[in-house]
């Protein structure tokens, strides 16, 4: 069935039957606004992301269910980076008229499934037709006790720099797709269906461990750069410490230049955070509890030293690019 | 200057210099999320809207400053319809690479100017390039004391139905533009730069007058239809009572069929609300204080009677269409 046969209000009606509101939702889908309650005394966190067909995704590369899941994860990742608990999601969709209702339902099934996994409720949105590409706009709200909010600007010289998981997997999958090849299924999943580190971000914040935190969406160097700018510090990153997956290492063995994808590829949706090295033993216990590998990749230094990357021999390494910028020529 | 020369982060940096955060904003633009405080005990209201070039607007018909202002107003209108106070705005922009930085700055100037007029702060967003049309995604947050929240579902038989302002002006301007004609400047402004009835919605809610309220974005009949559905009631609307502007009346005298634009044209961004007729004297005092004309257009009836429209002779009137549906064939 084409969406034009179901109609806008038919689509919204079907959607309302699929979602459950959850705690704190006074009014979900179906009025002019959602009306929501937050835990008393907690700060409201809000983030918004656009995903545009042909810019952020291609429908011939991803299945709609994964696309729905990813639309949730990339936003929840920002809530996680502030130490927050995800609560509410809003979805704006600009839909080409020829879209099959089944494709949209698979997208929505993935969206609602992922929202439930992170404990967030879909409580509002907007649907309209698009004359061009499929457009996805997601706004996520979470909350955090004010004293546990983690910002980008708190890194201090001497702090250790940690990242979760492994880097470059998503960018390597994209690199393969752009070359017309089929990526390794595990890598493909890291690209099409990433997991936001929601539990980890919350646990780190609740333990008051990070001095600064950010999620890795633009690539390690670009996002670390944001932390350095906000904190007024420099950093030394050791290439040999950057955590890589077995699939990534296998590709790297054949093509050493791929290391750049782990530094500047983007879309890792891992967390990068800094902490006082005295807290590292506590951090290791927390990592074991949460079940997410955490790896120290470098150290915060004085602002005069800037951002340095050291290769395996301890020599300065110069990456050819620093990260993703949407308006760069050729980006 | 093209946006590609300024760059994504250059654009965001410029933007940060232009916005001021205002009360309750712990963290505005520049971290993974905005971190916000709401007045204790108030509900969080949130709404989101997509505006897509060629679907919702044409850049050859509107100037960028008005487009920025309208992007704010259409969202604030939803906050007003719940009786809320506007607080925060989030802006997602998908920007064609060839866009002039000057055009974008005019858009942003309009956006920030309108936000300030409604007392809301721009505190976050997302910018990326668009391979196709200009895409605007706005999320607005407001708050309302829980006991003053106005929903769609509270209309009761016997309630009077009121609308603010005049209806059909925006649709008439669009009708002219679609016909290749230049609309009357006042009508054009009602279309390109509408005013959300923020002060009115808040005052009505604070006085606990409306039993139900909605903003008129899809047209009188469609939006009244949402109220009837949510409330489980019917309504009788008198065509002769629908408030029309002098410019609209002048056009109507030449082409009586245009009356449909006042019933089903959409984009009025006026408020429709219902209230117990015993409160009408109090309502008239409030209207005078707020300075917004309010007009009774009909009455809520039992659900069996459905939605009836009566013409000037009191006979049933059948409109040819009921309102805007984004996925209707030919919509």
Automatic annotation (TrEMBL), chains A, B:
Q: Which family does it belong to?
A: Belongs to the thiamine-monophosphate kinase family.
Which species is this record about?
Desulfuromonas versatilis
Q: What is this protein called?
A: Thiamine-monophosphate kinase
Residues the entry annotates as binding Mg(2+) 1: 48-49, 126
List the coiled-coil residues.
none
Superkingdom of origin organism: Bacteria
* GO MF, any single term: kinase activity
User: Which is one Pfam family of this protein?
Assistant: AIRS_C
Ligand binding (Mg(2+) 3): 32, 78, 215
Q: Where does substrate bind?
A: 56, 267, 324
EC number(s) reported in the record: 2.7.4.16
Q: Where does Mg(2+) 2 bind?
A: 49, 78
Tell me which residues bind Mg(2+) 4.
32, 47, 78
Cross-referenced InterPro entries, in alphabetical order? PurM-like_C_dom, PurM-like_C_sf, PurM-like_N, PurM-like_N_sf, ThiL-like
**Taxonomic lineage of the native organism:** Bacteria, Pseudomonadati, Thermodesulfobacteriota, Desulfuromonadia, Desulfuromonadales
């Amino acid at each position: 069935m084409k969406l034009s046969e179901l109609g806008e209000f038919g689509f919204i009606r079907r959607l309302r039957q699929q979602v459950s509101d959850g705690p704190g939702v006074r009014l979900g889908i179906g009025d002019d606004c959602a009306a929501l309650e937050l835990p008393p005394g907690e700060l409201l966190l809000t983030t918004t992301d656009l995903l545009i067909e042909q810019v952020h995704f291609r429908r011939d590369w991803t299945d709609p269910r994964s696309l729905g899941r990813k639309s949730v994860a990339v936003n929840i990742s920002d809530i996680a980076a502030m130490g927050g608990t995800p609560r509410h999601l809003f979805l704006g969709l600009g839909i080409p008229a020829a879209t099959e209702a089944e494709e949209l339902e698979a997208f929505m099934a993935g969206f609602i499934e992922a929202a439930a996994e992170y404990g967030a409720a879909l409580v509002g949105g907007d649907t309209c037709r698009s004359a061009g590409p499929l457009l996805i706009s997601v706004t996520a709200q979470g909350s955090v006790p004010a004293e546990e909010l983690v910002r980008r600007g708190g890194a201090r010289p001497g702090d250790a720099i940690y990242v979760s998981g492994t880097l470059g997997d998503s960018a390597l999958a994209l690199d393969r797709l752009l070359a017309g090849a089929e990526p390794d299924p595990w890598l493909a999943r890291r690209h099409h269906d990433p997991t936001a580190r929601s539990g980890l971000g919350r646990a780190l914040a609740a333990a008051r461990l990070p001095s600064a935190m950010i999620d890795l969406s633009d690539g390690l160097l670009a996002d670390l750069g944001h932390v350095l700018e906000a904190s007024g510090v420099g950093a030394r990153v050791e290439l040999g410490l950057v955590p890589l997956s077995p699939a990534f290492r296998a590709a790297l063995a054949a093509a050493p230049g791929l290391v750049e994808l782990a530094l500047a590829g983007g879309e890792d949706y891992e967390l990068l955070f800094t902490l006082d090295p005295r807290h590292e033993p506590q951090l290791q216990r927390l990592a074991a509890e949460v079940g997410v590998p955490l790896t120290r990749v470098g150290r915060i230094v004085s602002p005069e030293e800037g951002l340095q990357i050291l290769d395996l021999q301890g020599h300065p390494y110069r990456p050819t690019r620093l990260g993703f910028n949407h308006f760069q020529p050729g980006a």
